[in-house]
Amino acid sequence: MFTELHNQIEFALRNLLRWRFPLGEKRVHEMAVSLQSELNSFIRQFNWSIVKFPSEKHIDGPKSSPKASLRVADVGARTFVLAPVFERLFADLGFPSEIHGIEVDAFRRFTNFRSRADYGHYYAKLVKHGEYHAMDFLKWTQDLDVIFLLHPFVTKEPLVQWGLPTRFFQPDKLLAHCVSTLRNRRGRLLLSCPTEEEFEIATRLLVQNGMKLTERHDWHPEKENAKIQKQSRLGGMFIFD
């Protein structure tokens, strides 16, 4: 009871004190670069080259462009440090992309007084078409081509430990909404979870909503000599059945 009340108050205060403390130019430090590299090694395990994307919509350039633009979302983006990683991934496949970072707890602050949103807006500027959204993903209304769902809260304890009120613990609605935003474009979802239990829960919810697991790869920090990430990433690629 006390923890829930504490999390509610802290979350309310964070969202009340939304002052901006923007980052200057060239603020990407060694830790961020290492994190991007480690996450890139996880993401690149999957065979993205076989993924077929829609071809109707283009961000810019002539309509005869051979590759479609992709609308990509990092759901639970935190600081959105992976925005450049995602842009490079799809650029290597020949696709222009718009990269959206969506974070419900965007105003959590670090010891330098900057918030996740400050970093999020900074990383959004590092990609050609990037945007950071301080919002609950359940309120997102645009169709998507790709969702990165990296360590979602599908069990309650991690959510509470991260300081969120339990009203945000809605794994059924979260996964169903992911599927609904992808369905019109027959999109793809890349999932990662730190434990087998969480992976099984998330997989079950995605399958119940009409997706199927097509590829499974795990990433373990001890095997990769990771400097930043301390948790394993049990990952899967999901498409529509």
Q: Which oligomerization state do the chains in this entry correspond to?
A: single chain
What's the tally of helices? 8
Helix coverage percent of residues? Answer: 25-40%
Named at the architecture level, the CATH assignment is 3-Layer(aba) Sandwich
Strand order of the largest sheet: 3-2-1-4-5-7-6
H-E order:
HHEHEHEEHHEHEHE
Beta strand %: 15-25%
- N→C terminal distance: 42 Å
Round the Cα radius of gyration to an integer and report it: 18 Å
CATH class: Alpha Beta
Instruction: State the low-pLDDT regions, or none.
Output: 55-65
- At CATH level 3, the topology is Rossmann fold
**Approximate shape:** globular
Structural class: alpha/beta
Count of discrete domains: 1
What is the number of E strands? 7
The largest pleated sheet is described as: 7 strands, mixed
Can you tell me the CATH superfamily?
Answer: Vaccinia Virus protein VP39
- Average pLDDT reading: 90
In short:
The chain contains 8 helices and 7 strands; from the N terminus they run H-H-E-H-E-H-E-E-H-H-E-H-E-H-E. With 241 residues, it is α/β, with parallel strands linked by helices.
Protein model, in words:
The protein has 241 residues and is an alpha/beta fold. The protein has a single domain (2-240), classed as 3-Layer(aba) Sandwich (Rossmann fold). The protein has eight helices and seven strands, in the order ααβαβαββααβαβαβ. It has helices at residues 2-16, 30-43, 83-92, 116-125, 156-161, 171-183, 196-208, 221-224, and strands spanning 70-75, 97-103, 130-134, 146-150, 188-193, 211-219, 233-240. The protein is globular and about 45 Å long.
